[in-house]
UniProtKB/TrEMBL annotation:
Annotated transmembrane regions: none
Keywords, sorted A to Z: Flavoprotein, FMN, Monooxygenase, Oxidoreductase
The keyword Hydrolase appears for this protein: no
Limits of the Luciferase-like domain: 17-285
Full protein name: LLM class flavin-dependent oxidoreductase
Zinc-finger found in the keyword field: no
Source domain of life: Bacteria
Pfam families linked: Bac_luciferase (PF00296)
Region (Disordered), start-end ranges: 155-174
Amino acid sequence: MPGDRITLGAAAIPEPERDWLAAVERLPVESVWQGGHVLPPGATGEAVTRLALMSAWTERVRVGSAVLVLPLYQPVVVAKQLADLDSRSGGRLTVGVGAGGEFRHEFDAVGVPVGERGPRTDEAMEILRKLWSGGPATHRGRFFAFEDVELHPVRPPGAAGPAGRKGGPPLVVSGRKAPAMRRAARLGDGWMPYLMSPGAYARSVQTVQEEARTIGRDLAGFEWAMYLYCSIRRDGDRARDDVATFLGSAYGDKPAAMLDRIAPAGTPEEVAERFQAYIDAGVRHLIISPAAHDDTLEVVRLAAEEVLPRLSLPAEVR
């Protein structure tokens, strides 16, 4: 995504729905996102399945995972699944990846030691790149090995030319800690943290940039995104109650002052000021995750129609 403009994405909360996605595609929203665990504590979907639904039920927007817990997956299998989805969607896929670890039982159940999740994520990202590069690929790593294999994405019916994008879909790294930031700088096409204040985001940008300089990497074209829980209502008190109730059940009880730093809530005017702080910290693609149990489309609509027009790039990059 270009770094000289501000764009908006939206998370399909709680589950992707055809009518909700159709309504969002009529708004000035450029992407839709969903993730999912393999063994979540409740009846919620899995990341690849959700990507497939969103790809099938949209026509215009970019479709992304926020996030795919990559170490839970056999990388050759998921490389094929994602390449096929990218090809069939017309190159609209973005793969947000994370190392996970909050649900240890998932790792135990699939036979992956939770302590290996970081290096497994790194190696899996390398494998995805190799298999998406086109032509035969060989890999000999700590966890996986194959020789002279070639991945062939499916071609959409009636399409001409090669199937899929050479190099595959972008890999955007999520997380909140320094190892994830370094992973983004070394292996990612972007950085997409969550539950961060604007100040913490600005510090994370510095960490990513410093790591990139250390390894001699040019970050031109790198995507600076933020997955941002929020609620926007005409009634600001209702929005604040949304966030307190939603994040309290999802992430445990958090003080109101902490929620205010990491999950903007209020009227469009109030939230625009909070969003602008993230833009000033370096965010260029804001992914709105409605922290609400109902009327999530209203949150996205107000963000797109009344908050986004109020945002502006810092003077030094205009």
